[in-house]
Amino acid sequence: MTTAPAQTPSQIIDILMITHRRPLYARQSLKALLDSCDDTMRVWIWHNGDDAETLAVAKEMAEHPRCHRFHHSPVNEKLRAPTNWLWENADGAYLCKVDDDCLLEEGWAQTLRAAHEANPELGVIGCWRFQDEDYVPELAEKKLRDLKGGHRMLVNCWVQGSGYLMKRECMEAQGLLSQEDPCFTKYCNSIAESGYVNGFYFPFLREDHMDDPRSPNTLLKRDEDMAEHAPLSALRDGVTSLQVWQERVRWNAYMVQAAPTNPLWLRGWRLRLRMLGNKVQRMLGKTQGPGVNPQFKATASQERATTGS
Question: In 3D, which of 200, 77, 182 has the Cα closest to residue 145?
Fold first, then answer.
């Protein structure tokens, strides 16, 4: 009988999942994550709010042997408090969050860790949550980089806040998410500005984002479903149309591939200059991306979706 090799602290991955009010998604995502973990992966579950059905799912899944710790906040603390809870208390070499509306392919964490181990310059690398139709070769291929160990990645200053693997040393250098600006995108940009390389593993490791209306597992089948199952960002921006929401998702994919790899172009006068150039391109009808301005307001876009203009 062979004995599995002992795991070292440098291999440990601490993973956060936050649940809130969608029990069907939460059960599917938590079960898939917990069942896919090996003995180097620890799942931390934080439940926000008092939705009884989702809380019951979280408590049930907290009995899984791969669940390391469970916390219930009676009020919705959103993202900052749970994230900082993990970052302050976990001692693994890698930090991660998987959203409760996402499913990741088998072996995603081990592959990302192997890329990190072979390439010390990597800071935050992630899985890809977009569809095949969203890939724009003329943009993306300019950002592909070969790495040591046979790995490749699409370099980008930020990744989405789910399905990523971040070196703990990045958090120790940058600090916790601030109350003033807890945006994970900006946090990743700061890591890139400090000298680390961020991006998406390539060929892509797939993350099924069930809030994408094109996902086979989505609960968003009709406009009426947005009232019950709309994601947080759609609620925040007043999006109630599936067409508008899908347009927003496709824009996000486009902007990731079109974004500069130099983080200095993501703030200050360089950012303002780039945004002005994008505006001119749109005015001239030369915008390559799908739909409309990525910063469009829901009201205007929903009117277009309704009128068909």
Answer: 200
